[in-house]
Amino acid sequence: MLPTPRLTDARILVVDDERVNVVLLERILEQDGYRNVKSLTDPSEVVGLYDQFEPDLVLLDLHMPKLDGFAVMQQLESRISRDTFLPILILTADIRPEIKRRALSAGAKDFVTKPFDRTEVLLRIQNLLETRFLHLRVRHDTVPEGQAT
Amino acid sequence: MWRRYGDAFYTLLTLAVFGFETIALGALSLSFLLGKATGIASTPVEGILLGVVISTASALALLGLYLLSYHFVSNLRDRWQAEHLDKWTEWWIGLALTGPGEPAGHAPDRRPLPRVAVDSVLSLLEAVKGEEGDRLKEALAGHGVDRWFLRRARAGHLTARLDAIEGLGKARLPHALDPLLGLFHHARPVVRRMAARAAAGTLAIMAPEPGPDGPHARFIDAIKQADLQPGVVQESLLLLETRAGPILRELLADPELSDSLRWVALETIGRLGLADMAELAAASGTHPDPELRAATFRCLRRLGSVPEAAQAPLLGAVDDEVDFVRVQAAHAAAFVEPEAALAALEPRLEDSSWWVRRAAAASMARLGELGVASVRRAAESHPEKAAREMAVQILLEADVLTPAAARLATGVA
């Protein structure tokens, strides 16, 4: 059986074109004990970093210049195998229902509206990571020894 | 960058250079003309020409030097700005996350805060709320930034005023609400617009207080009394986010509400997807103004829900005398019980308006198997060619029919 990793060991990727938001999220995560946090203000670098870093969770802004959050999710979709659960948490100031629907159908797993509450963000991150690790464990347990990736 | 700093000086310099060149070239042209007319030797003209060339070259050199130094200084300034912004951001985040007691290092030792510090904290306030946001607001007030913004929002140059209103909107300070509401009556539309946005953003984080003196009631009064464009009101109501519901409820409950505000309220309910307000919105479905009837049905369509009491008026409106009302009613009919909806929609396949025919066929196709069967029947055997064509089009778009099958079955493709 795969040992359950500590949530604070999770690899978290933050993508937001506003540097202030990125620093804020980094500090919030650091303060809560997360040690593997990487961030980007240029969304065109997401795919490259995703391959290297293999995050357990992506915190993604929706409205960014050049490449928006929808396009980033589309790019990531081709990198993520169908049986992988990679949670994407959207951080956006846009609360329109159609935007939510569009993002959810593009692969987002949860939403936090800006301005956000620190406790709410941390709880949502925790929930998504728990689901991610449970999924990894189920996947590991069902794949014969030596075939798990 | 070019528009931010030094553009006044740049404009003056360019004007001076080109003005000088114009005068010189004018003089040169005149001299040539006079020389030609009077037969004067060309030597003085050559002198003028030489002078003009030298002065033009000097002017262009000066301009080039200015451009180069401007780029250099701008880059330095931007780098300095970015470094300071990072430092201040770290400092404010430290303050927000560590609680009471200012964090060490880079403490603001002077009042007022530099602009970069204010920009940094305003950006943070757009990202974080709750205890952390409150700490940042307290720090802003401690440095007098709120009072400074309020002073500038009430008086001074238009640009400074708009900048201050935008700052207040980002800071979302509850005590700035009333001054912002006061600006709803400003003579300049742009000030009214910015104030409405800022007030709505502020109200969005304030707890509702019932009663006629509460902030929400004051906001409603201000909206009703001010001369605001419908688009501005709608934008403000959308910015209220989760706090919009009670305000929209109160607006729609007012029988004396202006038609334009009622229209805005209906549009906002639909856009925010406030399904619990469908019943209240549906009450405007029989309004004498066709724009309001159409807005009501558009709202119900966006909500994806038609309250039982509104179903009969809605199905009646599928046959409204105004075509754009029929279009919206036909779209919303997709959310009514299928048999009743089909009875109202089927005759609309023969409507004189292409948009109504399309809305009717599209809604029929969304009414489950019964609806799809009706559209298919219309595609195959409706006596009107326009109805058959529309039914085929909708079936093709819904992938119910392939183009080849459509040709075979209906002769329409």
Structure characterization notes:
The complex is a heterodimer of chains A (149) and B (413). Chain A has one domain (7-142): 3-Layer(aba) Sandwich (Rossmann fold), CATH 3.40.50. Chain A is 44% helix and 17% strand. Chain A contains five helices and six strands; from the N terminus they run βαβαβαβαββα. In chain A, helix 4 links the parallel strand 4 (88-92) and strand 5. Chain A is globular. In chain B, helix 2 packs across helix 3 (115-127), helix 6 packs parallel to helix 8 (189-203) and helix 14 (290-303) packs parallel to helix 16. The chains are: A alpha/beta (149), B mainly alpha (413). The A-B interface holds A 18-21, 23-24, 27-28, 31, 93, 95-97, 113-120 and B 85-86, 89-90, 93-94, 96-97, 120, 123-133, 172, 205, 238, 241-242, 271-273. Strand 6 (116-117) of chain A pairs parallel with strand 1 (128-129) of chain B, so a sheet runs across the interface.
Within the largest sheet of chain A, what's the order of strands?
A: 2-1-3-4-5
Termini gap of chain B: 56 Å
The number of helical segments of chain A is 5
Extended strand count of chain A: 6
Mean pLDDT of chain B: 86
Number of strands of chain B: 1
- Please outline the major beta sheet of chain A: 5 strands, parallel
Q: Largest interface, counted with CB-CB under 8 A?
A: A-B, 21 and 28 residues
Question: What proportion of the residues of chain B form beta strands (DSSP E)?
Answer: under 5%
* Fraction in helix of chain B: over 70%
What is the number of independent domains of chain B? Answer: 3
Q: What would you call the structural class of chain B? A: mainly alpha
What shape does the CA trace of chain B take? extended
Helix content of chain A: 40-55%
**Main pleated sheet of chain B:** none
Unreliable spans of chain A: none
Span of the ends, CA to CA of chain A: 14 Å
How many distinct helices of chain B? Answer: 21
Quick recap of the structure?
Chain A has helices at 19-31, 46-53, 69-77, 97-106, 118-142, and strands at 11-15, 36-40, 57-61, 88-92, 110-113, 116-117. Chain A has 149 residues and is of the alpha/beta class. In chain A, strand 1, helix 1 and strand 2 (36-40) form a beta-alpha-beta unit.
